[in-house]
Design a protein that fits this description.
This protein has about 220 residues and is of the alpha+beta class. Helices cover about 25% and strands about 15% of the residues.
Length: about 220
Amino acid sequence: MKNYYLVDEKRKNPNTIWQKISQALYRSIKLELFVGLFVVMRQMLQRNNSVTIKYPFEKVQLNERYRAVHRLMRFIESENERCIGCGLCEKICISNCIRMETSLDEKGRKKVGNYSINLGRCIYCGFCAEVCPELAIVHGKEYENAAEQRSYFGYKQDFLTPIDKLKNQVEFEGAGSLRKDADDFVKKTPNYYDVLKSREEHLCDEESCVLHNSPKEVKGKVQ
């Protein structure tokens, strides 16, 4: 049997009406109620403080790294699919909702024949986008995917970027992609700083400086 401990022995629940009134007055005198009312009134009377939007005519601006319905990306230059059929997204999916059918084409390369995701089972964890080596599967911003059935499947043609809309596709910066300042977090080896220092000493002096990977010499005093 479990041992139960009484935390507050002096506390008693009010039984009579007078005890309930006394408890309410005691809590009101301590100004706890008025502090909460003051916070509510301050927010109500403040101008331009409304957080209500007229949905669906107005929608919340989502962050680029918001994880919503998936998208399959293409290469803008060649219009080919980025997916190489490695199957890492299917293997890492903890909800077991991704299915992929692959085959070999006439050139012996693997191609993806069918790609389906059970959106009703998916928990949108983002593991599939993070593990993809080609940045082929990403998360978009489309969150309105309600369905009448629990099993709501999305197929390859639903996720893949159409060719006629390929010019509007931008390099994805959401879940699964590198941040813009990712280079700042890359740890350099000690040898890297030694090489950089010696390179600067040989290329730059007080009168001139030769830029790295540039055959031209920039004249002028180094600040």
